[in-house]
Structure formats: structure tokens, C-alpha cells
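Section 5.1 Outputs to date
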Amino acid sequence: MKQITSRVFSVKEVMDGVFMLWLKTPLIAAKAKPGQFVMLQCGKDNLLRRPLSIHNINENKTNLAVLFAVIGKGTKWLSQRKPGESIDILGPLGNGYNLSPESREILLVGGGIGIAPLPFLAKIASENKCSTTMLAGVKSTACADIENNLPHNTNLIYTSENGLIGVKGLVTILIPNYFEKADQVFACGPAPMYRSMAKMPQLKDKPVQVSLETRMGCGFGACYGCTIKTKQGLKQVCKDGPVFEMNDVLWDELADL
């Protein structure tokens, strides 16, 4: 884990209210793994850092990207940064996805902004000669910038709430059509999506890893502000996660955010 000052490489609105920020931070990018996150200091007026999943890493492992929605003062500040400006960053943090060396096909499931950590995982899977299908649930539009950050051989299928792109409905309706060939399933999205997945009989015997989105204070286990209940007892999302085995989490005890 490193705490350093990074430089903004680029920032762009890629969907309505959703931004992709590239940071030049080689010490962190070189060590990052899919599913891990960073904590960004969003200006002098915001005391708490913002936890953001690592969206991708460039080929030289000098820059990393984060994907975020503008939902408050901190993320609004981030969206207004200019190339060359500095941002204090802490990371990489947490335990990421565990891609088995034996897996030949994987299924990725992203709900909304939950798609954020999945392109990085798809990239590593491609490097390991593992084929990837990604199910992406969006509100109404596709995102060419996200698509461009995926390996060219990724099978990307959209769902949207209004049916303007892909299949109409929530992303979980597609899982029964694609789970069977997958050696592993990886997901990131809101708690209701996970509760729906946890009830699917098709996934009972599948290894499913999920990344939890929750409020964090410190990002490294000191404040206990992100504690959840699991079958193994109390766990901290920032330190023990953010990635967990789906069937280990007590979903009825997890609050929606």
C-alpha cells in the first residue's frame, strides 16, 4: 500500500453523470490487481477519502483508471480535474478477485456503475488465455469508452431498464442463459442484484465472487465502519474484501446503499 501524489492524465464523462479518470501513478498501478480499490483525497474541503474500484491499468502499468458517478461534493470535485493536476491517492487496497489458473471461461456480471472493476479482470483473463462473457446492466445507453477498455475478444451483452439497448430488464435476467459454460462467475453491483443472484438455483454450485460497494472511512481496517456479517463472522469490506464469496455473505443482514 502506497500513499502518494498522482497526476491527472485525463478525465472524461463517458455516460450521463459517469466519469472515467486516468491517473499517472506507476507505483500503485504496477502492484494493482483486479477487484482492488484506491482511496482518493477529493480536495481540501472533503476530509474523508473516496473509495473507487480500479477500472483498468494501461499497458505500461504506469497509469490507472477509475470510473465513478457524480453523487456528491467529492465526486463532483474529481469530475472537474484537469490534466496535470495532482490528487493524493492511497492504494492499492483490499483483496481482489481470485481468477483460478484452471478457468478457461468466465462470466462477468456488472450492474450499473458496478461494471467499474470488471474490464481490468477481463484483461487479466485474456492474458491467461481465458475467454470472457460480460453481462452489463445499464440505464439507457452503451459506453464506447468502457467497451474500448475491454479485450477485443470479450463477449459483451447489454441489458437496459428501458430496452433501448440490449435486452430490456435487469442484468440478472441474462444469467440463466450464460452461466452454464462458466468455470467462475465474478460480479459487481448493488446489494439487490446480489440477493437476486444468491437465490438462483443455477448458481448454487458455481464459484461466485462478488465485490461489495459500501461506505468506508479509512480504507484499511482501522475504523470498522464497513463491517458486514458473513457465515465466518464479522468481516471488514476494506480489509477482508471488497471481494467475497457470494454464498458466505448474509445478504438479509446487508443494508442497501
